[in-house]
Write a structure and sequence with these properties.
By secondary structure, this protein is an alpha/beta fold. The protein is built from 11 helices and 21 strands. The strands form 6 sheets. Strands 1, 2, 3, 4, 5, 6 and 20 form a 7-stranded mixed sheet that branches. A 5-stranded parallel sheet has the order 10-17-11-12-13. Bound molecules: flavin-adenine dinucleotide.
Length: 367
């Protein structure tokens, strides 16, 4: 097998998928590493239940066409069934569909369900090391994502012992009741009572933003931490009627099967909420490969494993032909946008830049 490619894509999330499809459609010879079960488990793509902040990503687009076909064929029972069904669209489905389309329709791309272990610069560009061997390319796109910090909650486990873990909240995260992204999911809290879980000025900022958008009832639960809000933030939060509670969360209240009802705090107070928005910052930015090739990271004051990878408007890092896209990347002149459409846009910018350089080099050889 020829192990030399035009580009190597690392990461089987949304950003990697967008890069893989674009490169195949450009006719570039690429290899795409999806990662494995462990890297997938910690990837943000897995958490998304239903995308509804991107125009076009909506069940009605296809449903309307299917219903037209069924109504024309007088398939009334089937039409009724389709009309009453709710079809969610999430990242996992989009990624799986991209993999299937690429395997079926494009021969330019090789897809490997394994992790990348390391990346180093080589004579021809980069050498990428995986469990199945070494692969070479003039360009690399790293799309390995980030992990959010999770709130730790102490609750009795099945054997009645107290256990401190974020796992108590996972069922709610999987059902879009515990939220992580105000721009993606904030609108779900309209007309509902919501708790922002966090203690930093970002948590205060998110609470203010929610109120300014939806004028709903908001709590900030600092879960045992001292609130770290500015004086101005404290004044505004007071005006907005935001209640700040600093006691530890001891129990999550829910209705069966899984419907968040609220939190019991140390001391016995109950805060009834329908949604909670986690605002604890980043647990980890998967920037390992950027570091290995010597690319510059953002935010020098932060611990190295929490620093985003600095990119320019093409998604290129400070190392030529090493690109970073998706949640792990950040431009110096823009706030960070951890969104599906941002991941897609930068993936396409990066792939097209690599394609431009490849085609220019080909022309240059002829002149
Ligand atoms: C709960 C939740 C809800 C969200 N809802 C929305 C929404 O409604 N709309 C929206 O626009 N955005 C939403 N987002 C944000 C969106 O999910 C992210 O912006 C997007 O998933 C980022 O994609 P990514 O490809 O950068 O990273 P990830 O999705 O984290 O993917 C990273 C990939 O890299 C792989 N990987 C990691 N290490 C390696 C390695 N060493 N080798 C090979 N592969 C590796 C992993 O297996 C994974 O496939 C939400 C996020 C969360 C957490």
């Amino acid at each position: 097998m020829n192990k030399h490619f035009d580009l190597i894509i690392i990461g089987g999330g949304i950003a990697g998928s967008a890069a893989a499809l674009r490169s195949a459609q450009n006719g570039q010879r690429a290899i795409w590493f999806l990662g494995d079960k462990n890297t997938r488990k910690r990837s943000r793509s897995q958490w998304v239940k239903n995308l509804d902040n991107i125009i076009g990503f909506h069940e009605d687009v296809i449903k309307t066409q299917v219903l037209k076909t069924l109504n024309k064929a007088k398939e009334n029972r089937a039409a009724e069934l389709i009309a009453s069904e709710h079809y969610e669209i999430n990242n996992r489905m989009i990624i799986q569909n991209t993999i299937e389309r690429l395997q079926r329709d494009y021969r330019e791309i090789e897809i490997r369900g394994e992790i990348v272990i390391s990346v180093e610069k080589s004579d021809s560009g980069f050498r990428v090391h995986s469990p199945s061997g070494d692969y070479f390319a003039a360009a690399v796109i790293s799309a390995t994502g980030v992990m959010d910090e999770q709130p730790a909650i102490t609750q009795p486990n099945r054997s009645g012992e107290l256990e401190t873990s974020p796992k108590w909240l996972y069922p709610f995260a999987n059902r879009e009741q515990l939220l992580y992204c105000i721009r993606c999911e904030g609108h779900l809290t309209r007309d509902e009572v919501v708790a922002v879980i966090g203690h930093s000025s970002t948590a205060a900022e998110l609470a203010m933003m929610l109120f300014e958008r939806y004028e709903n009832k908001i709590y900030i639960l600092t879960n045992g931490r001292k609130p770290d809000f500015t004086r101005d933030q404290q004044t505004i939060l007071k005006h907005y009627g935001v209640n700040v509670k600093s006691a530890k969360i001891t129990t999550i209240q829910s209705e069966r099967p899984v419907k968040l009802q609220g939190f019991v705090l140390e001391g016995g107070e109950t805060v009834e909420v329908r949604f909670a928005l986690v605002s604890l910052g980043i647990h980890r930015v998967y920037n390992d490969f950027a570091r290995q090739v010597g690319a510059e990271l953002m935010d020098p004051e932060m611990p190295v494993d929490k620093r985003h990878i600095l990119i320019d408007r093409k998604g290129e890092t400070t190392v030529k032909n090493f690109f970073a896209v998706g949640d792990a990347a950040k431009r110096a002149d823009e706030p960070i946008m951890k969104q599906v459409y941002t991941a897609m846009e930068y993936a396409v910018r990066a792939v097209d830049t690599i394609d431009n350089r490849r085609r220019k080099a080909r022309r240059a050889k002829l002149l």
